[in-house]
Amino acid sequence: MERTFVMVKPDGVQRGLVGEIISRFEAKGLKLAAARLELLAEERVVEQYREHLEKPFFPGLKAYIMSGPCFLTVWEGRDAVAVVRRMIGATNPAEAAPGSIRGDFGLDIGRNVIHASDSPASAAREIGIHFGPAELIEYSKIDEPVLYE
Ligand code: IDP
Ligand code: MG
User: Fold this and answer.
1) I need a labelling partner for 33 at 20 to 30 A (CA). Which of 10, 115, 120, 134 fits?
2) In the chain, where are the structural domains located?
3) CB of 79 within 8 A of CB of 29?
4) Which of 40, 47, 55, 61 to mutate to test the pocket of ligand 1 (most atoms within 8 A of CB)?
5) Are 112 and 100 in contact (CB under 8 A)?
6) Which protein residues have a CB closer than 5 Å to ligand 2 (ion)?
7) Does residue 61 have its Cβ closer than 6 Å to ligand 1?
8) Ligand 1 mean position to 121 CA, how many Å?
9) Are 94 and 109 in contact (CB under 8 A)?
């Protein structure tokens, strides 16, 4: 089983999309391992997006992510990282496939509703930035025996 870090960005929270987004991951069969609503401090935003520090869009990205609360989650399941990346869709919501979260709920690359880790290594790093080990809950879910072969 794999874990991935998924964050509803401030536009998604403000637009009331948290419930819809959580529902999609639940319906897919993924297991929620951690969740928190939080106004992110600057250091955590910089750490989260450190690969983009030198990009021209970074100042705008930082201001956007800090403009309101984010809903931070960790999801668990088989191939969770790749599965969730497909579910969120392409970075630019204007081009993201209909049926994906960005494809269904956004129009602007600078307001793309949701973040998800892009590899197992990024997932481990990002989970570590935002959650302590005690916040990652291990439990059995009643649907597990029928969800996987
Ligand atoms: P990803 O979120 O699909 O992994 P990345 O290329 O890693 O996309 O970019 C991280 C975030 O930076 C994007 O989700 C988006 O919020 C923002 N971003 C990326 N490219 C642009 C841009 O050209 N203009 C404005 N914001 C951008
Ligand atoms: Mg990325």
Assistant:
1) 10
2) 2-136
3) no
4) 61
5) no
6) 118
7) yes
8) 19
9) yes
Q: What values do phi and psi take at 144, rounded to 5? A: -55, -40
Residue-level length of the chain: 149
- Helix 80-88 / helix 18-28 crossing angle, nearest 10 deg: 140
CA atoms of 65 and 89, how far apart (whole Å): 19
CATH topology of domain 2-136: Alpha-Beta Plaits (3.30.70)
Ligand nearest to the CA of 59: 1
Which residue's alpha carbon is nearest to atom 15 within ligand 1? 110
Q: Which of 9, 62, 115, 130 is catalytic?
A: 115
What's the start-to-end Cα distance of the chain, in Å? 14
Q: Residue-wise pLDDT tens for the chain (149 aa)? A: 999 999 999 999 999 999 999 999 999 999 999 999 999 999 999 999 999 999 999 999 999 999 999 999 999 999 999 999 999 999 999 999 999 999 999 999 999 999 999 999 999 999 999 999 999 999 999 999 999 99
Nearest protein CA to atom 13 of ligand 1, as residue: 91
Radius of gyration of the chain (CA): 15
Backbone angles phi, psi at 14, to 5 degrees: -60, -35
